[in-house]
Amino acid sequence: MKRAWIASTMVAAVALVPTWLGAQAVRAQQQGGAAAAPAPAGEPAPRMSDGRPDLSGVWWTGGDVGGRGFGGGRGRGGRGARGGGPAPTRFTDLHTPEAAAAAGTLDDDDDPTLQCIPTAFGTLNVSLFDVGAVGQIISTPEFVVMLTETFHGFRLVPTDGRPHRDDVPPSYRGDSVGRWEGDAFVVETKNFTDDTWIWAEGQASPHSDQLRIVERYRRVNHDTLEIEATVYDPNVLTGAWTVPKQTLVLAPFDQILPLNCVGLDASLPSGAGP
Questions:
Q1: H-type helices in the chain, by residue range?
Q2: Residue 211 and residue 189: Cα distance in Å, rounded?
């Protein structure tokens, strides 16, 4: 299992190198003179016309993958954050015996992300990222739109607390609904297919179609977004997985980039696959 996810990470990295390097060049230009001046330290979070916090912005951990400031998906302010505290429980720590056995059979060739299929939950403990490290939120009083650079991913999250739709088939990223609890935006996502992975480039795991994810987004000030999440899957887990709190910061540019994925076979030279 360990070999599988390490190898998958390396192969996926090779497959994405051309688009990633192109993205880095564009980001370098974006962060030049055109970048907006940073907000004063501690400036309050902006608010929408209805008075709710405006979650809009491009969010990352402080840098792009491999670049200066990259946070690497470490939780900040939660369990296992720098400064002590117990190590966080991983999704795989809660596997049922059957799920552990199934996870142990996964190999490089099984990794859906190498065929441009997204994860059910992001590789850096942030659903917004999928297998990348940058995401964008566009917030309105009616919908919160969550955009992911990789695989052209998006979620449209209604904000009025409506129930989940019963007229749509299961999907890779599930069906999301949201509601406000004070200044926290709570998102529940379910109705997943069962053919994607959880945290595919971390510790890979299958999941079932009973997967359900509850996230809480809170913009604590102009430049900081905190995300808490709990993952449920009664067919795979012995209990709920509490994801370490993630703290994202506002990126110095206002648009994400298209990162095209063409699949492993078309991206790697002959003999470079697993």
A1: 2-30, 97-104, 264-267
A2: 8
* Cα-to-chain-centroid distance, residue 108: 21
pLDDT digits (tens, 9 = 90+) for 98-151: 999 999 999 888 889 988 999 999 889 999 999 899 999 999 999 999 999 988
Instruction: Report the C-alpha gap between 73 and 239 in whole angstroms.
Output: 23
Paired tokens of 168 = 């749509």
**Spatial distance between the Cα atoms of 210 and 160, rounded to a whole number of angstroms:** 24
Residue 95: phi and psi, rounded to 5, are -60, 140
| b/e 189-198 (16+ beta carbons within 10 angstroms → b) | bbbbbeebbb
Judged by DSSP in three states, 245 sits in strand
Side chain identity at residue 202, one-letter code: G
Take residue 180 and report the two structure tokens written for it.
């406000």
Instruction: Give the residue from 210, 247, 212 showing the smallest Cα distance to 228.
Output: 247
Highest average pLDDT, of 21-30, 59-68, 139-148, comes from 139-148
pTM above 0.85, yes or no: no
Over pLDDT 90: what percentage of the chain?
59
pLDDT above 50 for 76: no
CB atoms under 10 Å from CB of 26, counted, come to 12
Model pLDDT, residue 66? 78
Rounded distance between C-alpha atoms, residue 191 and residue 74, angstroms = 28
